[in-house]
Design goal:
Strand order of the largest sheet: 1-14
Distance between the termini: 21 Å
Largest sheet: 2 strands, antiparallel
Number of strands: 14
Number of helices: 17
Structural class: mainly alpha
Shape: globular
Helix content: 40-55%
Strand content: 5-15%
Length: 417
């Protein structure tokens, strides 16, 4: 919540309801209520077949055993997308620059935050061609590589002598044209939501200036300074990362759902969630904020901070995880014709799909651990996602549809999916 939102909330009688929605517990609880309604056959859009979860589990176990036979599955985070063919492009860049200590933590935080904000679906037609490696990549991997090269170029730094940083001044000055040039966007190589992506980074530059206690260090306002602020504690819970992000950066997201004028970020509405306060019918997801939280865990650990209770965060309500459940028959549209019709992320159908996805990810994680004979400490949800549900969702999509797109058509605005 931004400084202005905090001030608004303080004067609003619904402040408790707002605070409740800004937690991973609220995501898990409210999505679980929608799954319960689905298992009872009481949803409008989807049927839920719990028996088909075995197929989804089998696919996830197969992905883990294929890619991580020793079951040493890393966390699902942006850092995996900077690793290609056994080469870690970010680690190599850090080594060349000689970054370490707090300088490394701030730079890693800058890159993670910027890259995650640019990570919503690219669309099927965009490709990034990397001059250094020769790689030609689309979708999330292409966005990751393009964001790394953007960051390395110094385009997000207002300091000519310090290229590996993103700061408030440079972020606010970023235009869609400059971002498009860096991401090789042309009429023949279109990227979904270019203006919205640039807008997110501009808002990031604006909002970090509203919370200098978190984002200001060594005379600079940088998003990555959040790691220095969090790292002042020797031990933190994973949910503390998300709570800090939601308390400081919720204002950057488009927020069609508000309470008392306070933006709530990535939330939707669904009638299966009932409350006797202003949060009635509201379902929180905070997908990109949680994806970012997962991506900040490793830099914090590398800086010496212990991060506990990883499963305090939830699964991610996005189309690869959600597609896994649709494509394996765990979820089925009551009207199959709706799959081909475009749906806005705020539509009740998509909200229902996302909520069911979050709740089912907890179930499949339990089943995967049971098959592999490990517990949540050895295989936290972050590793199940990586191992995992995301790649299994991509694989089954490729098996069923040319181009491997999602099973339900989404009108992406590059700020949610």
């Amino acid at each position: 919540m931004t400084a202005g939102a905090r001030q608004t909330a303080a004067a609003d009688p619904s402040v408790a309801a707002i605070r409740d929605l800004m937690t991973p517990e609220a995501v898990r609880t409210r999505c679980g209520e929608i799954l319960a309604a689905g298992l009872a056959g009481d949803l409008t859009w989807f049927d839920v077949d719990r028996a088909r979860l075995e197929d989804a589990t089998t696919r996830v176990v197969g992905e883990i055993r294929s890619h991580y036979p020793a079951l040493d599955v890393p966390f699902h985070s942006r850092w995996r997308h900077f690793e290609f063919g056994g080469a870690d492009l970010w680690a190599a860049r850090v080594a060349r620059a000689g970054l370490d200590g707090k300088d490394l933590a701030a730079a890693a935080g800058d890159l993670a935050i910027v890259s995650v904000l640019l990570d919503a679906g690219a669309g099927p037609d965009w490709i990034y061609t990397d001059a250094e490696t020769g790689l030609r990549l689309g979708r999330s991997e292409g966005l990751a590589l393009a964001s790394l090269r953007l960051f390395e170029s110094g385009a997000l730094s207002a300091s000519p002598d310090d290229a590996l940083r993103a700061d408030s001044e440079a972020l606010k000055a970023l235009t869609p044209d400059r971002l498009g040039a860096a991401f090789q966007v042309t009429p023949a190589n279109p990227l979904v939501g270019l203006e919205q992506r640039a807008g997110l980074l501009q808002k990031l530059g604006q909002d970090i200036a509203k919370s200098p206690e978190v984002f200001s260090a060594n005379g600079a306002l940088r998003p990555g300074n959040i790691l220095l602020w969090l790292g002042e504690r020797q031990t933190i819970q994973a949910c503390d990362i998300l709570l800090t992000l939601l308390d400081t950066l919720t204002g950057i997201w488009p927020s069609p759902v508000r309470i008392g004028g306070v933006p709530l970020g990535d939330v939707g509405r669904h009638p299966a969630v009932s409350r006797n306060d202003a949060s009635d019918g509201i379902v929180p997801f905070h997908k990109l904020s949680q994806w970012l939280s997962y991506s900040l865990i490793e830099p914090l650990q590398q800086a010496g901070t212990t991060v506990t209770d990883l499963d305090g965060l939830t699964g991610l309500a996005e189309y690869r995880n959600g597609g896994l459940f649709v494509d394996t028959g765990v979820l089925s549209l009551k009207d199959p014709a709706l799959a081909a019709q475009p749906h806005a992320p705020s539509s009740e159908l998509i909200v229902e799909w996302r909520a069911l996805t979050v709740a089912l990810l907890d179930r499949v994680a339990d089943d995967v651990r049971a098959v592999l004979g490990v517990d949540a400490r050895a295989l936290p949800l972050a590793s199940v996602l990586q191992g995992g549900t995301w790649s299994a969702g991509r694989r089954v999509a490729a098996e069923l549809r040319d181009g491997g797109g999602p099973p339900i058509t989404i009108q992406s605005d590059a700020t949610v999916f």
